[in-house]
Amino acid sequence: MNNTIQSRATDLTQDDEVPYFMWDYGYTVGRIREILASSDEQQRLWIMAKILRDARYADVWKFFSVKEFLAQRKNLAGRLGRQQPFWEFMHRRWVKQGFIPDAEHSHTAPAQVP
Questions:
Q1: Which residues contact 89 (CB under 8 A, 6 or more apart)?
Q2: Confidence of residue 10 (pLDDT cuts 50, 70, 90)
Q3: Residue 7: pLDDT band by 50, 70, 90 thresholds?
Q4: Rounded distance between C-alpha atoms, residue 87 and residue 85, angstroms
Q5: DSSP SS3 for 48
Q6: What's the number of CA atoms in the CB half-sphere (13 Å) around residue 20?
Q7: Residue boundaries of the structural domains of the chain
Q8: First to last CA, the chain
Q9: Tens of pLDDT along 49-89?
Q10: In 3D, which of 73, 104, 72 has the Cα closest to residue 89?
Q11: Within a 10 A sphere around the Cβ of 49, how many other Cβ atoms?
């Protein structure tokens, strides 16, 4: 991959660029943001799962927050493919580190969401 193509595929600030994790669908950054802002929950869940499966960890949070992920976590279960264990691990770590409450044992708000 030459540097120009690589730079364009990893530039997540340009709405008209197709990010590296969306090459198979050709959705631009702008289209992804439109879907995430839409009222169609099934489309939002699909695109969130696609990002969680295929984007780098740091790039995930450029599209939605940890709070948004946590709000949809149960709805995303089963849609994450081979990445499901990774996101379950991350959730357990966030709970263990105290970033988020253990929802099964606590009803208090998190001190600080990463």
A1: none
A2: confident
A3: low
A4: 6
A5: helix
A6: 16
A7: 3-97
A8: 33
A9: 999 999 999 999 999 999 999 999 999 999 999 999 999 99
A10: 73
A11: 21
